[in-house]
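I'll show a sample.
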Amino acid sequence: MKTAIFYMSKHGCVEKAVFLLKEYLKNDEVEIINLKKDKIKDPESYDKIILGGSIHAGMIQRKIKTFYFRHLNVLLKKKLGLFLCCMEEGEKAKKQFDKVFPAKLRTHAKTTGLFGGEFIFGKMKPIEKFIIKKIAKTDKDISKFKKEEVKLFAKKFA
């Protein structure tokens, strides 16, 4: 089966999740499409689709939203997985997930995932560092990335 993973990653956490997903979905023919860099392919040509992004300033990347609204009818016909990388945990993370993905997609998705997040100061612009220091009250790299959640997502999706 042909699976496409459409994603956008600002500092690399989502990209880390995407390549783990590809590794864990070894029985599928997986193609990875970075919505920021790659030519956008028609999702119609895939059997299964995974869509993922991350939270910045409380929202998912605009290109993710544009993609799912533009291709909503196709996505609702496919086996679909949705995931989000964010620093929030528990109920707060679930609320962020519900805020960024429309109810139609959430209810249609076979699998959903919250994979945690990371603050990697070496990958941030000065303004991002300033904001993180103020909001998160830290100036150190932090990883809350949940590799086991990625593995569980892949198992459920396969």
User: Anything to note?
Assistant: The beta strands are 2-7, 29-34, 48-56, 59-60, 79-85, 111-114, 118-119, 142-143.
